[in-house]
Amino acid sequence: MVVDMQNLNLSQSGGKMKVIEVKNLVKDFGGRRVLNGISFEVEKGEVFGYLGPNGAGKTTTLRIILGLLNPTSGEAMVMGKNLAEDDEARKKIGVVLENDGLYEDLSAYDNLEYYAQLYDVSNRKEKIEDLLRFVGLYGRNERVGFFSKGMRRKLAIARAIINDPEVLFLDEPSAGLDPEAQRMVRNLILELSKEGKTVFLNSHDLDEVQRICDRVAILQRGRITVCDAVKNLRKKFSRPRVIISTSDNKSAERAFEILNSLDFVSNCEIDGKKISLMLKENKQSSLLRKLSENGVEIEEIRKVEVTLEDIYFKMQEEKKNEERVYYC
Amino acid sequence: MRKEFIIAKKEIMEILQNKSSLLFTVGYSVFFSVIAALGVKKSPETIDTAVFYIPLVMGIFFAYVSTGRVFFREKRDKIIETLLCTPVSLRKLWFGKVLGSVIPSYAIAILSAILIVLISSILLKSIILPSPILVLHLLVTIPLLVLAAVSLMGFLYLLAGMKEVRIVGTIIFILILGALFGGLGLIGEGYRISLLIEIALMVISLLLVMLTGYLTRYLSKEKIVTTIT
After folding, report:
1. Which one of A84, A99, A105 has the shortest CB-CB distance to B14?
2. B18: which chain A residues are within 8 Å (Cβ-Cβ)?
3. Could you tell me where in chain A the CATH 3.30.70.100 domains are found?
4. pLDDT tens for residues A165-182?
5. Which residues pair with A202 in a beta bridge?
6. Is A88 in CB contact (< 8 Å) with chain B?
7. DSSP H or E segment with residue A216
8. Does the distance separating the beta carbons of B86 and A115 come in below 8 Å?
9. pLDDT digit string, tens, across residues B176-186
10. The overall pTM is greater than 0.95
């Protein structure tokens, strides 16, 4: 596919092209502030994860970017255009919202054909057949109403890319799907990313985001608390978690007592013969020395890499603590 | 093809795919046409009244059923949100849906008229036709009235919240038929279907269509999206 770079109207910074730019977005609903000064950018070809608990404002942000809601203040641009004002600019985006947006009384082919016509797609028949093959639904002529949730989601993704979009917006794409269908959706997104599509992924599935996103923003109560590459976040928050296995429960209890007295150890938890803890600094050798000096028999000690889930919940905890301090 | 026609074509295709609702409406149309034809058999001069009322009521009734499908269901199932992200303006979307509902509703009205004339002729064993003024009624007044009903119901379906939306269509349906029958009743029992009545109905329908067309300026994506849930 040849992309006309001059017509794409992408702003550049440091050699990277910004496809989505959100600046100081504020949204009030009936006197309640839902978004409070959101700013972020998504570069071309990135898979960007937008994380947050239910009610944090993820869908509101997405709706403003898509031009479905007007911001109270601030702006959201996609390829330099405001999608609310520019009908033509919407030709370059693909969308899978919470609802699949499919017509149950029509076949998969007819659903895709309808959207292909709305997007003025040329070579429709060929394109639709290729897409149905891509998502494994070629030859399924029954009504979409008879499709499983996974099949519907696949078709929704096919529908979203019928116009060969530059940017794909996905709102909880694997919500409610079984693990197999979830994996299939993830693989589809990764494949699209390999093709150079920019993907904006709204999700609260931390595992999914960790597996497929290059960068994430964590939204909490209308504010972005973190926005960085997943690998940077891991480094930033990488207080290594350590799991120690002892020979018996008695040794574990003794080790637990000792570990709790060490100032470079935190979040110490005991579960039978196993102890889980966080090291504030890289003091694994000091920890081992201390335990052996006290005669604790260790069977195994291993470091566990920090996950996005750990970071996410740590952020949640910090936010709660901040609010507690504030309200006190 | 223009976007409005693409949307209208899809709506018609979906209505035709839904066999149960189609059979239900066609069944009603046949039933009332047979009842009217039996009346015409007893007194043939009532053919004009039958061709005036039955197609009009059937057209507006199907308009009520189809707008529920075309507008309400898409809002309830949140499909409208995805449609609003396509490169189609909101007014084109509304108009395409209006067209997709008006065309099959008008077809049902014409089917009723044809059935009344056909069955009456069979029962009377001679061809019986309504007055020439009814041609104007069938070709201009009915499509205009159906268009007025559909555009107003469609507009309100998009504008109203999900709680109110269920009764909006029913209220408009009852209001239009009530105004029609009430208005004609006010003229008196001995009124005749005249050019004046046809022109009055056309003007009222046109005013309603123009008013709704104007009101769609106040329809926004935000209004639609925030009234979905």
Report:
1. A105
2. 105
3. 239-304
4. 999 999 988 877 778 778
5. A50, A171
6. yes
7. strand A215-220
8. yes
9. 778 777 766 66
10. no
Report chain A's mean pLDDT, rounded to a whole number. 84
| Structure tokens belonging to residue A293 | 């000096």
8 Å CB contact of A69 and B221: yes
Q: In chain A, which segments carry CATH 3.40.50.300? A: 5-231
Q: Which residue of B has its CA nearest to A165?
A: B86
Rounded (10°) angle between helices A149-160 and A179-194 = 10
ipTM, two decimals, is 0.85
Nearest to B87 among A87, A98, A114 (CB): A87
Residue A4 has pLDDT above 50, yes or no: no
B157 strand-pairing partners = none
d(CA A91, CA A7) in angstroms, rounded, equals 13
Considering only CB atoms, which chain A residues are within 8 Å of B77?
99
pLDDT confidence tier of residue A323, bands split at 50, 70 and 90 = low
d(CA A217, CA A178): 26
Superfamily of domain A5-231, CATH level 4: P-loop containing nucleotide triphosphate hydrolases (3.40.50.300)
Q: A276-283: which pairs have CB atoms within 8 A and are 24 or more residues apart?
A: A276/A241, A276/A242, A276/A243, A276/A244, A277/A241, A277/A242, A277/A244, A278/A239, A278/A240, A278/A241, A278/A242, A279/A239, A279/A240, A279/A242, A280/A239, A282/A240
Q: Shortest Cα distance from B78 to chain A (angstroms)?
A: 6
Strand bridging mode A215-220 / A265-271: unpaired
Residues of chain B contacting A29 with CB distance shorter than 8 Å: 226
Residue B6's pLDDT band, with cuts at 50, 70 and 90, is very high
Domain A239-304 has CATH 2.40.50.140: no
Q: Given an 8 Å threshold on Cβ–Cβ distance, is B225 in contact with A68?
A: yes
Is B225 in CB contact (< 8 Å) with chain A? yes
Provide, rounded to the nearest whole percent, the portion of chain B with pLDDT above 90: 44
What are the structure tokens assigned to B116, written together? 């009344």
pLDDT tens track for A82-114: 999 888 899 999 999 988 889 988 999 999 999
Helix A108-118 with A124-134: angle, nearest 10 deg: 130
Asked if B81 has any chain A CB less than 8 Å from its own CB, the reply is yes
**Searching chain B, which residue's CA lies closest to the CA of residue A83?**
B85
Find, in chain A, the residue whose alpha carbon is nearest to that of B225. A68
A118 part of contact set with chain B, CB < 8 Å: yes
Domain positions in chain B are 3-226
Out of B1, B7, B222, the one facing A69 most closely (by C-beta) is B222
CB-CB neighbors (< 8 A) of B221 in chain A:
67-69, 84
